[in-house]
Amino acid sequence: LLKHYHGGHVAIRLALGGCVNRPFYRIVAAYNKRARDGKYIEQLGSYDPLPNIYNEKLVSFNYDRIKYWLACGAHPTKPVAKLLGLAGFFPLHPMTVTNAERLRRISETKSIQPPAAEEGQKTEQQPTESA
Amino acid sequence: MAALGVTRCFFRRSHQLKKVETKYIVGLGWVLRRHGSVDSQSSNQPSLESQKLMFSDEKVQSILTRITGLDLQKVFRPVKMEMKPPSYHLMTDEQLSEATKTAEEAARQRLQMPPVLPERKPICDILAVDKVLDGLEKSKYVFTDITFNVPHRERFIVIRESDGTLRKATWEERDRMVQIYFPFKGRRLTTPAVFKEANMKVVFLEDRHELLLDHCLVQFEPDSAEYKQIHHLTYENIDQHGKYDLLRSTRHFGGMVWYLVSERRIDGLIIDMIQRDLIHDAESVVELYHMMYPQCQSAKEASEQQASGIELLKVYARTESKQSGYIELALQVYPQISLQTSG
């Protein structure tokens, strides 16, 4: 059905498909107001979030057509922008960097805590053995 | 009867491999053009490398096509395919000769030799190092460019590792990704078990070298290491057991001759050709050998004596070959055979 949107824009976003407990995304140029999995203008690629036997997540982009839609004024969503940043097409998304730093901080605090906890446990065991 | 058989075979619909072959030949055009341009660049520099004989030279190709022969019965032999009732055509002699000519054209198309390319160098290009992303993801991301008009060799296939480095994909990863997004008919994602050494030996015992090489052609790229290794093993097995006739009217014969000539092991082949009464083919092989190694003793003697025909074979047998006794024996027997067949 040819629908004319007032004030809408084209978005490059992920449309979910697949089966139960098995997601699969298609990277799609669609009008902003359409349903997530509904009628789209053009498929620009795919993204498989589950890693395969070689521990790879497969992503495909049709760079030629992505360039065309970006030139037409399409808005990429956050996950698409992050993927394109990881691919090297866009600069790295700031949230990717932020999440990486947050994860590193958590893992550092975790690595400091267990040694302290182990020392505490060892000191507890010695008094109990002695007593 | 034989003529009827030829026309019936010709009017069959093309079988699986033929469709695969035409696509393959079209797709290889890019590779051949690239390697052709490399040759033209090197020929401008007067160095030893430019004088090295290439498989794709016109003289070499003409010799190899002549040696391969054109046995219509073998090229169009019945192949396992969909059941279809055969079609019979009533023809005059002229129509029959025209049909035979078109059959020969089709056979020549089918006997096109797959190229012998130098082995591809591994890709190890790093595009970016982002230490920031270290430890963010446990698995790698593989980004493939699915633009339609780009040749597969020029496609951007890039991998973001879990430690943040962005690098170009290796040849094996590239082949896998291209096969996933642009599947080539008959090609598998994982290597079939036929290409393991033990299984290949079984195939060789059953004399199915041609089928193995056809399968290898469909599965691998012509400049990959596995393709070369499988072909070398097949050729060596054929040379060991003297089964040259298995590949005689197939597209792999030229490649086999090229391999044996570059390894300097053409004695068995020459003896086999003399025994089958193919003296001209044997002379062409020795000619090719001299073209490839112009510094060797037999080449120098042949150029001094301006030898041609059986003299060329005798010069080669005297100087370079390791089985000179066998060759001279075969040459002695040959005139007797030719007298018997003519008489």
TrEMBL record, chain A:
Keywords: Ribonucleoprotein, Ribosomal protein. SUPFAM superfamilies: Ribosomal protein S16 (SSF54565). Residues 103-131 are annotated as: Disordered. InterPro entries: Ribosomal_bS16, Ribosomal_bS16_dom_sf. Belongs to the bacterial ribosomal protein bS16 family. HAMAP family: Ribosomal_bS16 (MF_00385). PANTHER family: 30S RIBOSOMAL PROTEIN S16 (PTHR12919), SMALL RIBOSOMAL SUBUNIT PROTEIN BS16M (PTHR12919:SF20). This is Small ribosomal subunit protein bS16m. The gene is Mrps16.
TrEMBL record, chain B:
InterPro entries: Ribosomal_mS22. The lineage of its organism: Eukaryota, Metazoa, Chordata, Craniata, Vertebrata. This is RT22 protein. It comes from the Eukaryota. One of its GO terms (molecular function) is structural constituent of ribosome. Coiled coil: none annotated. GO terms for cellular component: mitochondrial small ribosomal subunit. Pfam families: MRP-S22.
